[in-house]
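Researcher: Hi, I'm a grad student and pretty new to this. My advisor asked me to get structures for two proteins we've been looking at. I'm not sure of the right format, so I'll just paste the first sequence and hope you can take it from there.
Model: That works fine. Here's the first sequence with its structure tokens right after it:
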Amino acid sequence: MAGQNNNAPVGVFDSGLGGLTVAREIMRQLPSENIVYFGDTARVPYGSKSKDTIVYFSRQIVEFLKTKQVKAIVVACNTASALALEEIKDEVDLPMIGVVKPGAAAAAATTKTGRVGVIGTRATVESGIYTEVLKEIDPSISVIGKACPLFVPMVEEGMTEHPVMMEMIDYYLRFLKKSDVDSLVLGCTHYPLLRSQIADYLGSRITLVNPAYETARGLKKLLEENNLLNRQKEQAAANLYVSDLPERFKAFANSILPIDIDRVKTVNVEQY
């Protein structure tokens, strides 16, 4: 895999907008890497769908990314990482990384009480994937999971600063605030966009773990191991694709990414 693929892009996909937090971290930590991003905006949310459906969608997206000659794939979606990654990894002759394992490893390294909280979509929390991975790292860790389904639509509506958002944070996280959890995984890629609000609410006793940040670190390691790091120094390119609503996506991307996005293309992922 070494050599000729180094300048090829990294493929990144998510059910919609949230994975842009992962793309943002990759751009910050690996500024030389070109990115092809796909957001499945026509079929979002994934968090309420079955495992079979998410595996099916993920396979289609991977096939699309392969047509862009990507050198590695980042599953920038907790739900797809939890339910599809292991299933499709062996079918793809490319290095792949999800957001769950890097996030879990950081939480295990952070906790002092051995009590870790995980918030995410219903599918991620009910899959128990974070509990499974954390217990593989340290069997003595106990995990409290909480699904926060309304966070995603509110973030996508741009309501992160809205008073209703603070009411939702209180509604979902009140019991965590009273628990002895000292490390909390933001187990959905939208949630880093609520990081400061959640931190203000929970206080300094609970350390927030951002899997987007940890995934970019993990990607760097993966590319190094496969001798695939892009050594060129010029500003990398990012090509963004969606299955629906490109203008809305472009506005959101430009509000959080460190580079200007002038175009988002629509692709019919059903054909792959």
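Researcher: Oh nice, that was easy. Here's the second one.
Model: And its structure:
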Amino acid sequence: MNDIFIEQLVKKKRKVKDRIIFIVTLLLVILIPVLFIVLAKMQILIAYFIYIAFFLLLFGVWLVWFIRTNQNVEYEYQMVQEVIVVSKITAKRKRKEIVKIDVKLFDRLAKAKDDSVKNLNFMKVYEACADFSDEENTYYAVYQHPAYGRTALFFTPNEKILNAMKPYLKKDIVLKLFYNR
């Protein structure tokens, strides 16, 4: 039997919330040291506050860099035989395995644009997709997790990953997903 190993990287798109956090942080990094320098020049505070402002600026530059790079998130899907492993990679520095599940355990696998997903209740939801609002390319899988119960995984697999899953999925899922029956 041939071993199956397929992997895919999906870059998560930045949301409006991420941009707002970056802009607010950048403004604070600029305004706080400037405020310290102005107060020191007006001799309201002691002149040593200029040094404090300089170190706050250095720390702020590092903080802005850290926040911005931590907003760079990628998801890696690995299909090894009948097991799919989904990992989250943050800033190309930190990797965390989110889900490791046997594809045979999927009760449902469909596109997220399917209206029936809105009527389902889940105890745990894993979001590992490029853009949650892009329902055309986003799929969801429903399965029973031993600890959490009914669980959903939202992800954005390519055709290779889907075709690698095909032999291990339940027949009714294959008919609905690949043959529209």
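Researcher: Is there anything I should tell my advisor about the second?
Model: You could mention this: The two ends are 30 Å apart (CA to CA).
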